[in-house]
Amino acid sequence: QVQLVESGGGLVQAGGPLRLSCAASGTIFSINALAWYRQAPGKLRALVARISSGGRTTYADFVKGRFTISRDNTKNTMYLQMNSLIRGDTGVYYCQMSEYWGPGTQVTVSS
Q1: What is the pLDDT of residue 10?
Q2: How many CB atoms lie within 10 A of CB 24?
Q3: Residue 59 confidence (pLDDT)
Q4: Tell me, what's the pLDDT at 33?
Q5: Measured between alpha carbons, how far is 97 from 50 in angstroms, rounded to an integer?
Q6: At residue 89, what are phi and psi to the nearest 5 degrees?
Q7: pLDDT for 52
Q8: In the chain, which stretches have pLDDT less than 70?
Q9: Which of these, 12, 38, 20, 14, lies nearest to 77 by C-alpha position?
């Protein structure tokens, strides 16, 4: 059974950093593309960043230059390094692999 579990969310001041992790189990992690999505209050879930099995990355315009997605196939873990956080980054962050989703982790950015 495939499971994805996010961690690392929390409360952070605007301008600060935060790193999210997504641990996967029950699958051959290295062959899958992975992605981070977020859902802000009252908004639809939106793609934040994606990383291919080969490490190619793409980002939503609203995080380019601030967020970095990465993966460690030896640990079956994906990361999202978030820098220069703004209040608009507040939301629940989800990791996604194929048809599987994690339960999400809350990120709250305070002014």
Answers
A1: 98
A2: 23
A3: 98
A4: 95
A5: 10
A6: -85, -5
A7: 96
A8: none
A9: 20
Residue 64, both tokens: 């380019």
Q: Which of 42, 36, 41 is nearest to 62 (CA)?
A: 36
**Residue located via tokens 């305070």:** 110
Cα–Cα distance measured from residue 45 to residue 96, given in angstroms and rounded to the nearest whole number: 12
Q: How far apart are CA 96 and CA 87, in angstroms?
A: 23
Q: Tell me how many degrees the CA angle 60-64-67 measures, rounded to the nearest 5.
A: 100
Q: Which amino acid is at 18?
A: L
Report in angstroms the alpha-carbon separations of 91 from 25, 75, 105.
Answer: 25, 26, 8
The token duo for 100 is: 């599987």
Neighbours of 37 (CB within 10 A): 21
